[in-house]
Amino acid sequence: MFGNMADMMGLMGKMKDIQSRMKEAQEQLVHITETAESGGGMVKATVDGKRKLLTLDIDKDLINSDDKEMLQDLIVAAVNKANENIESKIQQHLQKATDGVLPNIPGLDLGGFMK
Length: 115
Fold this sequence. Notes:
It holds the Pfam family YbaB_DNA_bd. This is Nucleoid-associated protein Dfer_4005. The chain is α+β, with helices and mostly antiparallel strands. It has one domain (2-114): Ybab, Chain: A, CATH 3.30.1310. It has helices spanning 2-28, 60-63, 68-97, and strands at 33-38, 43-48, 53-58. The chain has a three-stranded antiparallel β-sheet.
């Protein structure tokens, strides 16, 4: 009986360590960035690990264009692509944060801890 209690206490300690590491890892996500482009590089968007748009660079030729709809589509495409591309960086960062504490379980998605 005492063995199980000691195991449970050890597990509780690990959970606190995991929570602490995850919190720290989440705070560091602002330092991870990804840039993507659309329109052959005419629109570039950079996002951080919190999926916040940091910069948006639009080629001057597009700004002078009368095709507002195309410009909007290119902006949306660049931002969405940057957000999609940063997912793997976020996963790698969170896995490193819990390396050695959490067992390596294939398919374990730590992204849910951030939302």
